[in-house]
Amino acid sequence: MNKKIAIIGSGNIGLSLAKGLVKADFAKAIDITLTRRNIDHLKPFADAGFVVSNNNKEAVAKADVVILAVLPQQLNTVLDEIQTSIVPAKHLVISVISGVSCAAVREKLGEDVEVIRVMPNTAIAIGQSMTCMASDNASAENIADVTKMFETVGSVVKINEDLMTSATALCACGIAFFLRAIRAASQGGVEIGFHADEALKMAVQTAKGAADLLLLHGTHPESEIDKVTSPKGCTIAGLNEMEHNGFSSSLIKGIKLSALKAGNLYTKES
Prior knowledge:
- By secondary structure, the chain is α/β, with parallel strands linked by helices.
- It has 2 domains: 5-159, NAD(P)-binding Rossmann-like Domain (Rossmann fold, 3-Layer(aba) Sandwich); 167-269, ProC C-terminal domain-like fold (Orthogonal Bundle).
- Helix content is 54%, strand content 13%.
- The protein is built from 11 helices and 8 strands.
- The chain has helices at residues 12-23, 43-47, 56-61, 72-82, 102-109, 140-151, 164-191, 196-217, 221-228, 234-244, 247-269, and strands at 5-8, 32-35, 51-53, 65-68, 92-95, 114-119, 129-134, 154-158.
- Strands 3-2-1-4-5-6-7-8 form an 8-stranded mixed sheet, with helices on both faces.
- Helix 7 (164-191) packs across helix 8 (196-217).
- The longest helix has 28 residues, at 164-191.
- The chain starts with a strand and ends with a helix.
């Protein structure tokens, strides 16, 4: 991509994406402008060759791709600020802001502006994000470019925009759910005799191995579970005890409740 990119609001997500794009040779640091009110925080990035600025309007004017990564409560101010610098025929706008629809961004910037809504999760920091993406007006070419862009920091799935609240629960909140499961497994490890640091390391690597089995083999969890469960064995005994205590149903209920809460947040923010 030989386009200039402006990341407006360079917090954790914006900076992680900037690093990923350069690391994957998707873009050069000199072609990425990072904006923040206090640019002192961006000194390491300036030293690494990125352009840093506290002038959003100017950054947008010089860019082809504009990534909005500010807090939801700052968005309207930023959109009002950059509106006169947006040229629909030139600019592609990407929003990573929770709860803000593509239509809401266009309402401020102009109905002809192509907007793609993207939701990474915190694993973007290590290039392992599960990123969901939606748009109601972007071209196939821009969708393909943005997919490649976010594939530099993990996996990407294109979904309908009305599923963004559900994606928040499964992918963004989901990080916390899986982390809590790992924590519980490590606590079980302590109960059966391991030191806390050993138990955590063992639980983390076991969870990573389980996820990689599914990713690399393309299999269903139950087929991998079948390989571990023998008749009258210890694995099936443990699994059934967990299920009797609501392991799967509590996870399903938690995801459903998180999706419901995410939907309510969207309503309040829009």
